[in-house]
Design goal:
The complex is a heterotrimer of chains A (319), B (514) and C (336). Chain A is mainly α and 319 residues long. Chain A has 13 helices and four strands. Chain B has three domains: 201 residues, P-loop containing nucleotide triphosphate hydrolases (Rossmann fold); 179 residues, P-loop containing nucleotide triphosphate hydrolases (Rossmann fold), CATH 3.40.50; 78 residues, no CATH class. The chains are: A mainly alpha (319), B alpha/beta (514), C mainly alpha (336). At the A-C interface, α5, α11 and α13 of A face α7, α13 and α15 of C.
């Protein structure tokens, strides 16, 4: 397994730098080993596939979040963006599934445009995206008139539940997005700009980089990915549910990013770590449930893991 | 000899592989102002941090008021009577002057509530003793640096300090404020307080201090009464060069004047105005010419450099490049038209510490190295290789994080970032500040060489660098050009006269009554 | 003179500056209150007694009082340079524990939740103050933890504990004095006490100091910054817990789903009230205005019968964005 460490290790000599970077793999390995030994029917194709399909939307949103966090930002509005996408689908299905999906994704881009515009204007990302977290959910409910709408569209159902060469489509999408994000960060000029803006914004400005454009773009990407996750979720449920689609997903996404070793301070993005972070959180829930424990136990374990992850990262900041 | 207030004996401190302090001994007596000088990286700040409990020494002892001590942190040291006044005045800018003065020992009423009126009254009284008359209810951040410094000193003294450490206290003060500080130090000495005065400015050593200690590479290389020390001897001790050599070569590595000729200016900035900072400054740079900006801190040197580069918005004025007037002007456009800048604050505005040397060097060149959104690796590696070699940047590999490099090498990376754009004009804001002697000399030589190749340079630097390196000097005072000196006219004396002209007419430095 | 002016322009002062900066000062300090007055006027003109009637005002006051408690704690946290995302979950946990603890009488119903919430605040404070972890992530974790605990106590939400109607707590919680609900009175009393603590005690002043420049300056001034942070997070959790207890008393039950998103509402109220999200400057008075403003707007949207309650969210969110935009624009103007 090679890690696309985009900005590498910052640790100084002698410090334990692998723990924040690779701790998530360790935790994941331990959890997998535990399940292989103690959980009946864990290592079945059906179960593994189910876990991966369930984690796919969170992973897609988390990848967008990782890019945003790389610019020293945060996007709280992703869950509401998913809800808007979900609410728009049934309204435009009359024109066919693809136009409806296009509208939903465009709406995600529009949300990102507003977020990015506000952040580029100098408003703190927490507040800027908090506004659309609150307003976005309301808009979704207004659009759908507050109702859950069942959808019987083969294309959407296929997107949510189909597979290609035995791999579920949502999983394939998450992997594609991850690969694209990794490639952009390593090879594209935009990736360098993004990390420079997050690592030292005044320096990026003085180097003549288009800082505002970079910020806006990154939030638009996050919005588009969130909308895609909304389409996926809607397809899988065969229903547009603006009240609950993406509810609190911003927390899961941020958790996945942080646990995956991406520092909140920006300048560094870990793509594979983010995927693993999302998977770890999903497996915790699955493990707990399969051992007849409750959802609530899973949340408390997740809380402990988040604290452990940031505690491990603490050593790196040097102070 | 007096009983020492504080005494460090054979103190050592190691960071990783480097010995930051090597058996340093220092004796600070009651009522003396003791200068601590040395180049950056000599160990001054480490010594301060050891004295104030920020770092624990690896070896040696510290005695304070006759007893061996081991402070757990600045708060602990402060309780014991050691106060520190930092270069960047570390107080709470959003709180009022009075609150800042008494934070930590606020007067309270019998009910345990804050006694606001007493707080205000006492704050006014205390500050009056330092010649500061301000409304103490105003947020500290609104006031000038001079006042903030006085508040910091008043705070230290009223906390019953026996030793006050001042870390480059005058780096942002106007001349009159420096005078005031000198007076206040005199008062502190009369009260039997010891002062450790860390500075870069030799004038102040001779004016304010009674004894001086010199650190170099973590070792104490000289300590003795100021009146038995010569200026040139002090410089030689700091630089670690024989006195005779310093005399012969000057202190910088700049060579002779450059062939500027009659070429038309490649850059012309006319009547730059920026509220509260620039008041109609004009600058011209010709190909191959090094134009120095001289003046005190706050006179508008950095502000002029930044305005010419488009880093700060202008209220009025024009910038013309290669004869073409520019209406829209910002760093991105400036870079595209061949005007580049290396900013003063390397850490805050220069390097991106988490990115590699390679990425840092090519950051500004990204648009030129990009085809279809992707960075061309071959072109990038060629540029990076060329500049690492040419500037002698010491890296383990181009993949090394810039944050791990020394200050001098970071500065070279920033120079490379701009030089790889092949600029026509390079603006350098304090390019040699805070870097070691070797790198300093290399950078000075490089500037020389580039100018000889036809690059126009706008240089903000210490006076001695300006005098020895510039072909033309624009002397700034209060955001306006006080005079322009060329060729043989350039000299420390002449520049000082132009700068000093404002002290007599009283138009500046009146910030204490702000 | 020149730098002095530049610096003065960079910051904010009621006592100095030109007319324009004074106006900006006024807008930041009292902007929320001014808008509140306008909105209330508009509301009374449009809806008359259905808005200004005592029943409606009482409902607004009751609704606002819970938010006020949470937002008061949040103001301390934000002033100290932090943020507390856990308050919504803590509020829910507290409600569940109050209902659970009511089997031991009023004392159990009050002390059990407050003790647990205080403990959660302590954990927040220790991790943020002493271990120096990022407040955003730490309180995100306790958000999950508290919500998990609330569900665990109530058997994954299947068990709704009921508070006996004859318990002193329920009677007090549902009583009113001179037409004003007891929860409202309690919230106001707590708010007033918090005002004294923030503005008239050493601790309050040090909370401001801790929020100036990452607390670095306060540390160099020898202030016990870690201890200040711990106290601030304990206070925030306790106030959220108190709100939870009061809601439980009012509804005679504890629901683990309560208070979702309440942390964001509280942050919005604090920011609308003019407190800088970066800490160090702001006021409790502004927070009160922010809380009332949010609640009055929600109420007015409910008054328009044809609009679904989803419009509340749209308006609140849009309003928050507008407020920060205006703040940013004013700050920009000052900088120039």
């Amino acid at each position: 397994m090679t890690e696309p460490t985009v900005a590498g290790r910052m640790g100084t000599a002698g410090r334990v730098t692998w723990l924040p970077d690779y701790g998530v793999y360790l935790a994941l390995g331990v959890l997998l080993a535990f399940n292989l030994v103690f959980t009946p029917n864990f290592a079945t194709v059906a179960n593994l596939r189910l876990q991966l399909v369930q984690v796919a939307p969170v992973a897609i949103v988390a990848l967008g979040m990782a890019l945003v966090i790389g610019t020293e930002g945060i996007d709280l509005s992703v869950g509401s963006t998913m809800a808007i996408a979900a609410a728009l689908l049934p309204l435009y299905l009359g024109y066919g599934p693809w136009p409806a999906i296009a509208v939903a994704v465009l709406a995600g881009a529009a949300v990102g445009l507003v977020n990015g515009g506000l952040v580029a204007y100098g408003i703190q990302p927490i507040v800027a995206t908090l506004g659309l977290l609150v307003a976005g959910r309301g808009m979704a409910l207004v659009l759908a008139d507050g109702r859950l709408v069942e959808i019987f569209d083969p294309t959407l159902a296929a997107i949510g539940g189909g597979q290609l060469l035995g791999v579920p489509l949502p999983v394939l999408m998450a992997l594609t997005v991850a690969a694209a994000a990794g490639f952009v960060l390593r090879r594209a000029a935009f990736g360098r700009r993004l990390l420079a803006v997050g690592g030292n914004r005044p320096a990026a400005l003085l180097a003549g980089l288009p800082v505002r454009r970079t910020l806006v773009t990154v939030y638009v990407i996050s919005g588009v990915l969130a909308a895609m996750a909304g389409v996926l979720t809607t397809g899988r449920q065969s229903a547009s549910d603006p009240s609950f689609t993406g509810l609190l997903i911003e927390l899961s996404a941020i958790t996945a990013v942080v646990v995956g070793g991406t520092p909140l301070a920006g300048g560094r993005v870990r793509i594979l770590g983010t995927l693993m972070g999302a998977l770890l959180m999903q497996l915790i829930i699955a493990t707990v449930i399969q051992h007849d424990l409750h959802d609530s136990t899973a949340r408390m374990i997740q809380a402990a893991i988040i604290v452990a992850a940031v505690y491990a990262q603490r050593n790196r900041s040097g102070t | 000899m007096n009983e020492p207030v504080c005494e460090a004996h054979a103190v050592s401190k190691r960071f990783g592989g480097t010995l930051a302090l090597d058996h340093v001994s220092l004796r600070l007596e009651a009522g003396e102002a003791h200068a601590l000088v040395g180049e950056n990286g000599a160990g001054k700040s480490t010594l301060i941090k050891v004295l104030t409990g920020v770092h624990r020494p690896d070896g040696g002892t510290i005695r304070h008021l006759g007893r061996p001590v081991s402070f757990s942190g600045p708060a602990d040291a402060q309780d014991a009577g050691i106060s520190t006044i930092y270069q960047e005045v570390e107080l709470a800018p959003l709180l009022s002057v009075a609150d800042n003065l008494f934070l930590g020992r606020e007067p309270i009423t019998r009910l345990g509530l804050l006694d606001r009126s007493r707080l205000r009254r006492e704050a006014t009284e205390v500050l009056a003793r330092y010649g500061v008359a301000v409304d103490v209810r105003r947020p500290l951040g609104e006031l000038g640096l001079g006042i903030r410094q006085m508040v910091a000193i008043a705070r230290a003294v009223s906390a019953r300090a026996r030793l006050v450490i001042m870390d480059e206290p005058t780096s942002s003060l106007a001349p009159r404020e420096v005078d005031r500080l000198a007076d206040v130090i005199e008062v502190l000495r009369e009260q039997g307080i010891a002062i450790l005065y860390v500075t870069h400015k030799l004038d102040e050593v001779f004016r304010v201090c009674q004894r001086v200690s010199v650190l170099r590479d973590g070792r104490l290389v000289h300590t003795g009464p100021v009146r038995e020390t010569s200026r040139i001897g002090l410089v030689a001790a700091m630089l670690g060069r024989p006195v005779a050599e310093v005399r012969r070569h000057g202190v910088t590595s700049f060579g002779e004047a450059h062939e500027v000729g009659r070429a038309a200016p490649v850059l012309r900035a006319d009547s730059l105005v920026r509220a509260h900072a620039l008041n109609g400054v004009s600058v011209e740079v010709r190909p191959g010419e090094v134009v120095g900006l001289a003046g005190l801190l706050g006179s508008g040197r950095s502000e002029t450099a930044r305005a010419v580069f488009g880093a700060d918005p202008l209220d009025a004025g024009s910038v013309e490049v290669a004869g073409r007037a520019r209406r829209r002007w910002n760093p991105a456009i400036a870079i595209r038209s061949g005007v580049c800048m290396v900013p003063e604050d390397r850490k805050a505005e220069g390097v991106v510490p988490g990115l590699s040397v390679r990425d840092n060097i090519t950051l500004a060149a990204l648009p030129r190295l990009t085809r279809g959104g992707l960075v061309s690796r071959r072109a990038r590696d060629r540029i990076v290789g060329t500049f690492i070699r040419r500037l002698g940047i010491k890296v383990s590999s181009p993949d090394q994080k810039v944050g791990e490099l020394s200050g001098g090498n970071q500065q070279k990376v920033l120079l490379a970032r701009m030089l790889c754009l092949r600029p026509a004009v390079l603006i350098l804001d304090e390019p040699t500040r805070g870097i070691d002697i070797g790198a300093k000399a290399e950078i000075q030589a490089l500037i020389d060489e580039l100018a000889r190749e036809g690059l126009g340079v706008l240089l903000v630097a210490e006076l001695e660098e300006i005098v020895e390196g510039a072909d033309t000097v624009v002397v700034l005072r209060d955001g306006t050009a006080a005079g322009v000196l060329r060729g043989a006219e350039i000299g420390e004396q002449r520049i000082m006269e132009l700068i000093a002209a404002d002290v007599s007419d009283g138009s500046a430095g009146g910030r204490f009554d702000d | 003179m020149t730098t002095g002016q530049a610096e003065r322009a960079a910051l904010f002062s009621p006592a100095a500056g030109t007319g324009r900066t004074r106006l900006a000062a006024l807008a930041r300090r009292h902007g929320a209150a001014l808008v509140l007055v306008l909105v209330v006027l508009l509301g009374s003109l449009t809806f008359g007694s259905s808005f200004t009637g005592p029943g409606n005002l009482r409902a607004i006051a009751l609704d606002a009082s819970y938010l006020l408690l949470v937002a008061t704690g949040m103001t301390f946290v934000i002033l100290s340079g932090g943020i507390d995302l856990s308050v919504g979950s803590v509020l829910a946990l507290s409600g569940v524990l109050a209902a659970y603890g009511s089997r031991w009488g009023t004392a159990g119903a009050v002390l059990l939740p407050l003790a647990v919430c205080g403990l959660i605040g302590l954990v927040n404070g220790l991790l943020i103050g002493w271990a120096r972890l990022a407040p955003f992530v730490v309180t995100l974790a306790t958000l999950l933890f508290a919500r998990g605990l609330a569900f665990a106590v109530s058997q994954e939400g299947n068990q709704v504990y009921i508070i006996p109607a004859d318990l002193a707590l329920t009677r007090i919680g549902q009583a009113s004095v001179l037409g004003v609900g007891v929860p409202v009175l309690i919230a106001l009393a707590v708010f007033a006490a918090a005002g004294v603590v923030l503005n008239r005690t050493r601790f309050g002043l040090r909370v401001f100091a801790a929020g100036n420049g990452d607390g670095h300056a306060a540390e160099l001034m020898g202030l016990p910054v870690a201890r200040i942070r711990v106290r601030v997070y304990v206070l925030s959790s306790l106030l959220a817990g108190l709100a939870g207890v009061l809601i439980a008393a009012q509804t005679a039950s504890g629901l683990p789903t309560l208070g979702e998103g309440r942390e964001l509402e509280a942050i919005a109220a604090v920011v609308i009230g003019g407190t800088l999200l970066t800490g160090g400057a702001g006021s409790l008075g502004g927070t009160l205005a922010g809380v009332l403003l949010l609640k009055v707007i929600q109420n007015l949207i409910n008054q328009v019968g044809t609009l679904s309650s989803a419009y509340q969210q749209v308006v609140s969110g849009t309003f928050l964005v507008l407020v920060v935009l205006v703040q940013a624009a004013l700050a920009r103007r000052r900088r120039q």
